[in-house]
Write a structure and sequence with these properties.
14% strand
């Protein structure tokens, strides 16, 4: 079995294993992934965050159990589900029961009983700093996981939010995990800021859209998943108010991430090339999975080249 020291030494020759990099030339390292501390960082991106699910499925297939998870926004939601013990397949099935697919007719839609729960999630909340209340969605997360506190999670989780007035990141890893997720997903203008210990918190993408830096000091191998995807829209298009808000917010996150990557990098960066999917277009789930597939296969090859998984 390979030691952590030898594994890290092998990785040192490759500062970033991105999906757009050239093929790896370092010698493969053979060992048991169960002996390594794997960190998993999950980024924000609205509906594009469904691309985190095939990443979970890949890790499950390879027998990888993360040592720690850090998540922002939709990454915090997905991270909570995975840290609570749900498998990638179970998370996919959970969302399939709730989401309308583009090719479904009314008969198929009406047969989805769980789909009616989305009506509970849409609770307009004018005048409170946002358009939609998130309490019912948090109740759904609780019912799906049975978890209410960080202490109940099977994998340690760090949830990233941002302080409204200063824009500084706030990392939450104890206490009420549902409240932490609520803060991390509070997209400015869409959800109201969350009052937390005399501060108002908003979406963590304001400060740290892909929080892999939280894992570098404590993990042997850090896998970061950036689901921001490609830029949308044309210069000559007349944007709606929502398009303006979401495009500005997404561009800000891209700039923050680019600056971070210049300072330090994760060991493996998965960046699905997601195109034609806007922040709230969750009904495009199958298209998101399809577009994410090439990056998942690339990640599989990267991991296979560096580590041979040995099953008991």
């Amino acid at each position: 079995m390979v030691s952590r020291r030898h594994f890290i030494a092998a990785l040192a020759s490759l500062p970033l294993l991105g999906m757009s990099t050239s093929p790896l030339h370092s010698a493969p390292v053979k060992g048991d992934l169960q002996s390594l501390r794997i960190g998993l960082a999950l980024g924000g991106g609205g509906a594009k965050g469904l691309a985190h699910i095939p990443v979970f499925e890949l890790l499950d297939e390879l027998g990888i159990r993360p040592h720690r998870i850090a998540g922002t926004s939709i990454g915090a939601i997905m991270g909570m589900l995975y840290a609570a013990g749900l498998s990638g397949v179970e998370i996919r099935e959970l969302f399939n029961r709730l989401l309308i697919q583009e090719d479904e007719g009314w008969r198929e839609i009406l047969q989805k009983r769980d789909l009616l729960r989305w009506l509970d999630f849409i609770d307009l909340d004018f005048g409170e700093g946002g358009l939609i209340a998130s309490d019912d969605f948090l109740a759904f997360l609780h019912s799906a996981t049975g978890v209410r506190s960080f202490a109940e999670l099977k994998i340690p989780l760090q949830v990233v939010a941002a302080e409204l007035w200063s824009g500084q990141p706030v990392v939450l890893d104890s206490g009420d995990v549902l409240q932490a997720v609520q803060a991390s997903m509070a997209v400015p203008g869409l959800f109201a800021p969350v009052a937390y210990e005399e501060r108002y918190l908003v979406d963590g993408g304001v400060a740290n859209p892909v929080p892999y830096d939280l894992l570098l000091a404590d993990c042997d191998l850090v896998i970061a998943v950036d689901v921001l995807g490609q830029r949308e829209g044309q210069a000559d298009q007349s944007p709606s108010i929502f398009s303006t808000i979401f495009a500005s917010f997404t561009n800000m996150q891209r700039s923050i991430l680019a600056a971070k990557l210049e300072q330090n990098t994760p060991h493996l960066l998965i960046q699905p090339e997601l195109v034609g999917v806007r922040v709230l277009e969750f009904y495009k789930a199958e298209e998101i999975y399809r577009q994410a597939a090439p990056s998942i296969e690339s990640a599989r090859r990267q991991l296979d080249r560096f580590v041979t998984v040995t099953n008991p």
